[in-house]
Amino acid sequence: MSKILIIGQQAEGKLNSGIAKVVSAAKAIIGGEIHVVVFAADGSAAAAQAAAIDGVTKVIQIDRAENDHGLAVIIAPQIVALALTGYSHVFAAGTTFGKDLLPRVAAKLGVQQVSDIMAVHGATSFDRPIYAGNAILTVEAPASPCVVATIRLASFQAAGDAAAAAPIEKQSLDVSLPTHTRFVSLAAQKSERPELQSATRVVSGGRALASSENFSIIYSLADKLKAGVGASRAAVDSGYVPNDMQVGQTGKIIAPELYLAIGISGAIQHLAGIKDARTIVAINKDPEAPIFEVADYGLVGDLFTLVPELESKV
Amino acid sequence: MKALVSVKRVIDYNVRIQVKPDGSGVVTDGVKHSVNPFDEIAMEEAVRLKEKGKVTEIIAVTVGGAKCEETLRTALAFGADRAVHVKVDEEIQSLTAASALAAVFKKEGAEIFFLGKQAIDDDAAQTGQMVAALLDLPQATFASKVEIDGGKATVTREVDAGLETLEVDLPAIITTDLRLNEPRYLKLPDIMKAKKKPIETVSLADLGITAAASLKRVKVTNPPKRSKGVMVKTVDELVAALKAKGLI
Hints:
The complex is a heterodimer.
Chain A: E1 2-7, E2 10-11, E3 14-15, H1 19-27, E4 32-40, H2 44-51, E5 58-63, H3 72-83, E6 89-93, H4 96-109, E7 113-117, E8 119-120, E9 125-130, E10 135-140, E11 147-151, E12 168-170, E13 181-188, E14 201-205, H5 216-225, E15 228-231, H6 233-237, E16 258-262, H7 268-271, E17 279-284, H8 291-294, E18 297-300, H9 303-313
Parallel strand pairs in A: 1-4, 1-6, 4-5, 5-12, 6-11, 7-11, 14-15, 14-16, 16-17, 17-18
Antiparallel strand pairs in A: 2-3, 8-9, 9-10
Helix pairs in contact in A: 3-4, 5-9
Chain B: E1 2-6, E2 9-11, E3 33-35, H1 37-51, E4 57-64, H2 68-78, E5 82-87, H3 94-108, E6 112-116, H4 127-135, E7 139-149, E8 152-159, E9 162-169, E10 172-176, H5 188-194, E11 199-202, E12 216-221, E13 230-232, H6 235-244
Parallel strand pairs in B: 1-4, 1-6, 4-5, 5-11, 6-10, 7-10
Antiparallel strand pairs in B: 2-3, 7-8, 8-9
Helix pairs in contact in B: 2-5, 3-4
């Protein structure tokens, strides 16, 4: 029987929206328990949200002042202690938090990590992307001592709401924590727009926008469509938009119902981030742009006239 | 202060990846290989710290087969003073590589270790964190800015929410993101000079490492192909198509 521990990533009392997708991946391993553990200074709110996800059988809440900023060096030893109490799997979301944290856990447990699971074939058999998603590797992980893996959120649908909430158990772990790493600050972009990784529609702009000011036509179209806003690496590197908007192999990997790529040529590193989008629309002045190879609908022309026209007609 | 930088030999990022028909892997024979681009950024950062007088010696390290020597030569041309080649002929995975790198870090008495945040072949993004775990040292991953002062590093990290800043005590492990710097172009004199710089070869056994149990690579397949869609001529045509599919 499997006993799966999911790291309940949270910030300011809000469980990360990806956790319901990680639960879906865990449910694909038939039979057994699925526990979510929340590390926070006060994890009550996030624990209650985790308990309401269908498939979760127990939530473990570990409150400790040091857990406040979710530092990997602080959380990892606590996960290791918990994992050793009989878990068959430890899963985290493939977010920057999960990617930072889980290899530290894997190394402490002496196991190779399975990064970015995109399909679950069984308790130890998984698919994961390699070479920016240009090849898929099927791996068989050793079952002992346990399987440690991050889940590629774009590959799984969120689990629904539970009929009845799972029990929440407060625990304290006797683990000494390092003091060599200190949180200084977080400069977060505050936005009313849908979050890039959970938005059903996303509008992204590329280098062709040519300036930070010109990006306003992307925001404006996105607002009309109630869409999240993304960008290519080129647009981020050029300073048009902040880093957290980057979509691609090394940025965010997304799977919206509708993706509009505006003035994005479509480098393979960008395509790696949008492969799972249901419908891709590309607007670009270059008819040879590689983005048109993957787009469901392509429109060749000047984005500065086409995008405002599109906004006026949707 | 000594800095260690790891460099990995990978298929060049411009190469179109081909999956072998028998599913055993991807085609590597006769394919251009380069230094993992994130590792070039790691190398560049160490060189800039040396130019600022914060670092006194840069040691490049790689774990892999005989061909990885050219990868080390590139690192030496960038500005590494010497290199360590942990020679391994069989395929190894992240935890084993991390164990070897941790052993070299300790043996060299380095105080800062730069690694790329991920290698563009396996895309696993875990070796740096594993090294930090094995050494019980701080880690600052996905770095876009690094400042060293008085036995500490202040590191800005690219995270999903924006930019996070951490302060870590040295020694520390730092993995580098794209916007940390722009690696320099190598000049011919530097490439020539690199040929004379020393490379020490060691084995896993020399470092007291045994390979960790591996993930079994069952098969490598092609991803499902997106079929080419249709080209529309006008915004009206596009809007009609999206409306017909219920997307807007």
